[in-house]
């Protein structure tokens, strides 16, 4: 399954009737698309060149040409995990659960890479580098992602702010300015507290970077300056929470590495310093 086809699968519930016609052509005739002109694509799907261009942009591409390049680069590779049952059914042995968890992790990371927009990552990192402070907002399971990112960036000298208490975080968000940036995390993209805080940041002139499930029309994505997406999963027994956590951590880890690489020598110095102080604390030395 190509990256384009995977994105279409993610957005299947958000496609219009016209977009469904185009999606069917992409799914069944990917090689033919590469050689077709805009009008030929329209004729193949019974739509229009403008409809193809709109869908390409909805999938995160600049236009049909970029969509074709993605199809040509990826080809029509088989999906390694397509037939793997990742649901928990209650009858597994411990060995089965270990293997299943390994496959869950591998699949969630592979799927995240498929919809990864490198340019958006670069833009997010630039905003964080320039920011005086990085505010981080996440509720419930997303708060664990937020706290992990807080710990990482704090170790390399960035001023980051996150509180698991939403009221306390909102009180700090009231002081956010155009010199700061907010990283908002919500799998659904519809978490009321996160939407409220993100709108508050926008009102104060701050840039908003979001991490949400792949749906460019969700409320959080609509108000964000930079949109980062993770795959939408339809799993039972909270397996989806595992995959969304792993996918979100992949994105925040890449953001952290991008920040750390910006000034490698300074980052190395700060990490060495924190390790030295940790050793002193551990060994009881002054």
Helix-strand layout with pairing:
Layout: H1 3-10, H2 17-28, H3 30-35, H4 38-45, H5 49-58, H6 64-74, H7 94-114, H8 118-130, E1 134-138, H9 141-154, E2 160-161, H10 166-173, E3 181-186, H11 192-203, E4 207-213, H12 219-223, E5 226-230, H13 239-262, H14 264-283
Helix pairs in contact: 2-4, 7-13, 8-13, 9-13
Would you mind describing this structure in some detail?
The chain has 286 residues and is of the alpha/beta class. The chain has helices spanning 3-10, 17-28, 30-35, 38-45, 49-58, 64-74, 94-114, 118-130, 141-154, 166-173, 192-203, 219-223, 239-262, 264-283; strands at 134-138, 160-161, 181-186, 207-213, 226-230. It has a 5-stranded parallel sheet, sandwiched between helices. Helix 7 crosses helix 13 (239-262) and helix 8 (118-130) packs across helix 13. It is globular and about 75 Å long. The protein starts with a helix and ends with a helix. The relative contact order is 0.11. This is DNA-binding transcriptional regulator, MurR/RpiR family, contains HTH and SIS domains. Residues 124-265 form the SIS domain.
Q: Termini separation (Å)?
A: 58 Å
| Continuous helix count | 14
What is the CA-based Rg, rounded?
21 Å
Uncertain stretches: none
Q: What is the H/E order?
A: HHHHHHHHEHEHEHEHEHH
Strand content: 5-15%
Provide the residue-averaged pLDDT.
Answer: 86
Query: Main β-sheet, in a few words?
Result: 5 strands, parallel
Can you tell me the CATH architecture of the largest domain?
A: 3-Layer(aba) Sandwich
Q: Would you tell me which CATH topology of the largest domain applies?
A: Rossmann fold
Q: Give me the CATH superfamily of the largest domain.
A: Glucose-6-phosphate isomerase like protein, domain 1
The number of strands is 5
Q: Assign the structural class, choosing from mainly alpha, mainly beta, alpha/beta, alpha+beta, or little secondary structure.
A: alpha/beta
Query: Portion of residues in helices?
Result: 55-70%
Instruction: Tell me the number of structural domains.
Output: 2
Question: What is the CATH class name of the largest domain?
Answer: Alpha Beta
Shape: globular
Widest sheet, order of strands: 2-1-3-4-5
Organism: Facklamia miroungae
GO molecular function: carbohydrate derivative binding; DNA binding; DNA-binding transcription factor activity
Domain SIS: 124-265
Domain HTH rpiR-type: 2-78
């Amino acid at each position: 399954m190509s990256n384009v086809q995977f994105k279409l699968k993610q957005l299947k519930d958000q496609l219009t009737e016209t977009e469904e016609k185009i999606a069917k052509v992409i799914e069944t005739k990917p090689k033919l698309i590469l050689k077709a002109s805009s009008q030929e694509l329209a004729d193949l799907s019974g739509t229009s060149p403008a409809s193809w261009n709109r869908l390409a942009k909805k999938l995160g591409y600049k236009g049909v040409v970029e969509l074709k390049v993605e199809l040509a680069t990826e080809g029509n590779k088989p999906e390694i995990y397509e037939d793997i049952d990742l649901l928990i059914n209650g009858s597994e042995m411990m060995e089965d659960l270990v293997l299943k968890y390994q496959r869950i992790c591998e699949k969630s990371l592979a799927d995240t890479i498929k919809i990864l927009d490198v340019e958006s990552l670069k833009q997010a990192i630039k905003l964080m580098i320039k920011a005086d402070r990085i505010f981080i907002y996440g509720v419930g399971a997303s708060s664990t992602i937020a706290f992990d990112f807080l710990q990482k960036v704090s170790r390399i000298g960035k001023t980051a702010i996150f509180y698991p208490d939403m009221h306390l975080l909102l009180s700090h968000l009231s002081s956010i300015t155009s010199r700061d940036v907010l990283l908002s995390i919500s799998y659904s993209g519809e978490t009321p507290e996160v939407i409220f805080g993100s709108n508050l940041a926008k009102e104060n002139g701050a840039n908003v970077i979001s991490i949400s499930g792949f749906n460019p029309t969700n409320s959080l994505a609509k108000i964000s300056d930079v949109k980062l997406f993770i795959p939408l999963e339809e799993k039972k027994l909270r397996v989806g929470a595992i995959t969304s956590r792993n996918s979100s951590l992949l994105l925040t880890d890449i953001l952290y590495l991008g920040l750390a690489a910006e000034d490698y020598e300074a980052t190395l110095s700060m990490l060495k310093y924190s390790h030295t102080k940790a050793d002193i604390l551990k060994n009881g030395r002054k």
